[in-house]
């Protein structure tokens, strides 16, 4: 896992005006250093609760949340506010944190993507960290704190796993593809029908990895990941990771995934398809034949 240099520059602490003009390599390096601090802090919290006894609560949408989710997010929020007080934060558990309604830089956090995996002791969940600059993800981190694996995607650079560059793999045809989705039961209506068409055309459909499936795709072990109903904090961090590994990630219509974060923004649902091979990605889109909302 990447260690964080204790001599991190905090020259951005007072203002981000210069950064918003031009993002130099030194700026990106500082963002990555803070991103590593966030993942380290969240991981320390998560490991303390993993496979331990704790209360499980249900949110309004009936999805589970634990003390680990909330404590991990709070640990990351404190670090961002220390190093980049002018940056906004949008977290799964606490929403928008910023004095302003808009900000050039927004950190989007999902402390435990795959809470059901976490509470059942399966180490295939992950901490997701994204940094948006004027709406574009310029940094994405997928961190698996139990296995101590960290994927980092940076705009304009090759994706790394624990500091080593990685690449998605080529696949000759959809019929040769290994596909992952979190669960076939998460699809409904037209999306369920569309996914069934796709599932029947791939070589092997697999289930149960949450964000870890995208990490496996970036590392060249999986060819395709397809999901519906993802929130912005579920996928924004994945974009730099997948693209930096040579893969492609879009909505089901082939459009670029984007979300304009603000104090009034709603965390809408998105259908997502990611592939290591552009040809397989197009075959997947052609098979999904999606005409509904993105």
UniProtKB/TrEMBL annotation:
Protein name: histidinol-phosphatase
GO biological process, one term: L-histidine biosynthetic process
EC number: 3.1.3.15
Keywords, comma-separated and alphabetical: Amino-acid biosynthesis, Histidine biosynthesis, Hydrolase, Magnesium, Metal-binding
Pathway(s) of this molecule: Amino-acid biosynthesis; L-histidine biosynthesis; L-histidine from 5-phospho-alpha-D-ribose 1-diphosphate: step 8/9
Catalytic activity from the UniProt record: L-histidinol phosphate + H2O = L-histidinol + phosphate
Similarity comment text for this entry: Belongs to the inositol monophosphatase superfamily.
GO molecular function per UniProt: histidinol-phosphatase activity; metal ion binding
Known cofactor(s): Mg(2+)
Binding locations of Mg(2+): 92, 110, 112-113, 234
Keyword Protease found: no
Organism domain of life: Eukaryota
